[in-house]
Amino acid sequence: MTIITGVDVLDVRFPTSLSMDGSDAMNKDGDYSAAYVILRTDDPELAGYGFTFTIGRGNDIVSLACDRRAQPLVGLDVADVVGDLGAVYRTLKSDSQMRWLGPEKGVEHLAMAAVMNAVWDLAARVAGRPLWRLLSEMSPEQLADVADLQYLSDVLTRDEAIGLLREMMPGRAQRIAELESSGYPCYTTSAGWLGYSDEKLRRLCQEALDAGYRHIKLKVGANLDDDIRRLRIAREVIGPDVALMIDANQVWDVPEAIEWVTALAEFRPLWIEEPTSPDDVLGHATIRRAVAPIGVATGEHGMNRVLFKQMFQAEALDFCQLDSARLASINEILAVYLMAKKFGVPVCPHAGGVGLCELVQHLSIFDYVAVSGTLENRVTEYVDHLHEHFVDPCIVRRGGYVLPTAPGYSAQMHEESLARYRYPDGGYWRDAGGSQASTPSERACSGGEKD
Amino acid sequence: MTIITGVDVLDVRFPTSLSMDGSDAMNKDGDYSAAYVILRTDDPELAGYGFTFTIGRGNDIVSLACDRRAQPLVGLDVADVVGDLGAVYRTLKSDSQMRWLGPEKGVEHLAMAAVMNAVWDLAARVAGRPLWRLLSEMSPEQLADVADLQYLSDVLTRDEAIGLLREMMPGRAQRIAELESSGYPCYTTSAGWLGYSDEKLRRLCQEALDAGYRHIKLKVGANLDDDIRRLRIAREVIGPDVALMIDANQVWDVPEAIEWVTALAEFRPLWIEEPTSPDDVLGHATIRRAVAPIGVATGEHGMNRVLFKQMFQAEALDFCQLDSARLASINEILAVYLMAKKFGVPVCPHAGGVGLCELVQHLSIFDYVAVSGTLENRVTEYVDHLHEHFVDPCIVRRGGYVLPTAPGYSAQMHEESLARYRYPDGGYWRDAGGSQASTPSERACSGGEKD
């Protein structure tokens, strides 16, 4: 019998604002960070690793929430936990005092994501399988048991969920074989951060083409003239046939979004991502009707399955970009995938940040194998940074994620990375004076006014 | 010149789960708590007091978030802060790293509420007025300047907001005089907690009648037979003419809500409160269409103004129950009042908890004086507990809130209360062994499984 003996939570921050990686119209100076959870067991060879993603300040608050959220796991038998991953999820979720702080949104939900990601990583390690394969070997009934269907029965019952999954049972093995050959298609945002110069944009677009990408995404929304110039450069480099996506990171009100996107229509974007508040289901639906055939994409700040339910009901989305570290891990993500299947909306998960690519590859592979069974209109985000901190980093070849083979959810970071970027006492931050004050993000902040 | 010199944040918890005060179908054992913020100045006679409300565990997380959120205020000139209450709000809100943790929801938003509540308390103290009067003396343009209208322009522009407020300028003084005579009408939830016996329910309903209440609310949703029995008792005591409201605290899916409420229709509830997930705009709209003429009420977990915007757009609500400690204080609350005015939905704020009655009386009075100008279908919650901890407690006479006269937002707690209920080092908790483990809430929790 193996017991969960303790939980370590580390506040890990990378000084990405130094290079403007990740800069966009809303988030100009993020220091990509993780609230990183380790579930220790009395087997020194076995632990579960998970995290949620933030962009700097407040990562300590999320880390505290992770610690509190994980405590009920301590003392449990690992076999019980991984033997009923629906029950452990429901146990954590049922704390009504913690629930009050959301419910199911914000810091508490990020913590739930981190902790349950670690639980799923643990389960996959115990099974000796990469998580996508563990999920792909579960029966429709087992998957329905772990999925969080609360508040969804007006659009998806348990029986319907099982039915959708049963339909896709034939061909699971064949689809795995296909992906093992081709990889899962991805696109790159690495070219298009707002803080990059025109020359860097041009060079990175060319490099993306050369690397085999057929989809490229640019940030927009700070200045319309700049956006027109940058999109023109991108189209010059990539030509008319490669897909170009644009991402406004929530800066517009609904009427402004419609006006701005219309002004960029000549560049034929495949989608406009996060045109307005991520909470605005009806606003997204209005924008979608107005800017068609340009698609509407959102979801990286989609707080929970109830929001996605309504996005589907209101026909507000062309592309669902759920986030692996904001939704409450597989239990909730699975519910969103099942609803997306029912409503015929492709899921193109959000990635980038730190470690999100490592996680979402498992989700996309599982979706193709066991839920959607199609790659049509599917392309998963890939951003080329911070992978060196992971023990089992994702690998992209010719524009496709290579299927992971190591057991787990690919969430484990190197000990050396943790020692260096742990905040505020890791080597990097100690050298930097013990705080984020060495990065542009904090220097901008220290004046009191931020933009 | 007076400077904000520091911020104290206290984690204050009251062991309400001992008496089952506050018990409902979702929250069986809350320990009513506040993350309590004091903005200190270099004038020993001047400070700002604010808080947000939680129900126990996690109040430490919210307290940490309050501390982080308030730091940019330290060192500012009080005159600058209270002189532009829109600017200080936007400054705090503009931290994009913190924003990532919501945005504008969950723990971070609760913290924003607590901090800005303290800022508004400070402003009212500097003005020497109770907050409702400070607000009632602001011009339409001043009110529009402080209101957070971001993401709302598809339903409410700044010009429209000013127009709505201008319409109500005539008669402000007369409406104040009316309320000074009659008080602002309220209803009581004190009778109807789920954990109370039938005998206690019967007695409390009678006491509420005797105290002058014309509206009484009961918790429902745990067991249909129990609900039928309890509603029958209540109707027996209060007769056919007193309004009876029911509150399910989010326990149902949409189809279940419709079925359950239909089964209680014979008791003619005025409204069903929180029938399902507070995030489910479309679900509330569906329920509302199905259970009419029973009204639908929600809002105590309404996370932000974007959610309320959609509730109004989708015609999902008959009664808007915004929360004074979950929305980001007056800046955001004002936006919701203005939208409610435009859509013709009465606002009946959520109260109870600890200190919420103290806050919401100011909101309701201001609404009548300067926004809605009517009391039709308006009734503000009142729960009869924990008021003794406040320096300027609300006063209810014959079913109406008496207008507060002391300067501020009525948010300040007694020093002795803080010393006793500060967690975990206050006198009460030290005597209780230094943790919530002495209350039923934590005993239920310590087994690992909670309900």
TrEMBL record, chains A, B:
<dbReference type="GO" id="GO:0016052">
    <property type="term" value="P:carbohydrate catabolic process"/>
</dbReference>
<dbReference type="InterPro" id="IPR013342">
    <property type="entry name" value="Mandelate_racemase_C"/>
</dbReference>
<keyword id="KW-0479">Metal-binding</keyword>
<protein>
    <recommendedName>
        <fullName>L-fuconate dehydratase</fullName>
        <ecNumber>4.2.1.68</ecNumber>
    </recommendedName>
</protein>
<dbReference type="InterPro" id="IPR029065">
    <property type="entry name" value="Enolase_C-like"/>
</dbReference>
<dbReference type="Pfam" id="PF13378">
    <property type="entry name" value="MR_MLE_C"/>
</dbReference>
<keyword id="KW-0460">Magnesium</keyword>
<dbReference type="GO" id="GO:0009063">
    <property type="term" value="P:amino acid catabolic process"/>
</dbReference>
<dbReference type="InterPro" id="IPR034610">
    <property type="entry name" value="L-fuconate_dehydratase"/>
</dbReference>
<dbReference type="Pfam" id="PF02746">
    <property type="entry name" value="MR_MLE_N"/>
</dbReference>
<feature type="domain" description="Mandelate racemase/muconate lactonizing enzyme C-terminal">
    <location>
        <begin position="198"/>
        <end position="294"/>
    </location>
</feature>
<keyword id="KW-0456">Lyase</keyword>
<dbReference type="InterPro" id="IPR013341">
    <property type="entry name" value="Mandelate_racemase_N_dom"/>
</dbReference>
<dbReference type="GO" id="GO:0000287">
    <property type="term" value="F:magnesium ion binding"/>
</dbReference>
<dbReference type="InterPro" id="IPR036849">
    <property type="entry name" value="Enolase-like_C_sf"/>
</dbReference>
<dbReference type="InterPro" id="IPR046945">
    <property type="entry name" value="RHMD-like"/>
</dbReference>
<dbReference type="InterPro" id="IPR018110">
    <property type="entry name" value="Mandel_Rmase/mucon_lact_enz_CS"/>
</dbReference>
<dbReference type="InterPro" id="IPR029017">
    <property type="entry name" value="Enolase-like_N"/>
</dbReference>
<feature type="region of interest" description="Disordered">
    <location>
        <begin position="431"/>
        <end position="451"/>
    </location>
</feature>
<dbReference type="GO" id="GO:0050023">
    <property type="term" value="F:L-fuconate dehydratase activity"/>
</dbReference>
